[in-house]
Design brief:
With 89 residues, the chain is an all-alpha fold. Helices cover 85% and strands 0% of the residues. It contains three helices and no strands. The N and C termini lie far apart (58 Å).
Length: 89
């Protein structure tokens, strides 16, 4: 357990950040699962309709430094590649 006042404050701050990060990551994970499920079902239109929300959630998570901005870009790119491949079939 933390002994000094500053260490106790750091424990409080890290707990608050952990809660926020957990919430944001959960929202990102949920929207990515919806897009991936639509892709797995072969429904390109639904996946394309869900993509703006997924991109928005990824960008928000990157802006809040919950995930790295390049990871957000990579995930968006991979999803769009899957959707485009599905539409080409």
């Amino acid at each position: 357990m933390a002994n000094t006042q500053s260490a106790k404050k750091q424990v409080r701050n890290s707990y608050r950040k952990w809660l926020r990060n957990r919430y944001v990551k959960g929202k990102v994970r949920g929207v990515l699962q919806m897009v991936n499920k639509a892709i797995a079902d072969g429904n390109a239109e639904q996946a394309l309709a869900l993509m703006p929300d997924a991109a928005s959630q990824l960008d928000k998570a990157a802006k809040k430094n919950v995930i790295h901005h390049k990871k957000a870009a990579r995930l968006k790119s991979r999803l769009m590649h899957k959707i485009n491949a599905l539409q080409a079939q």
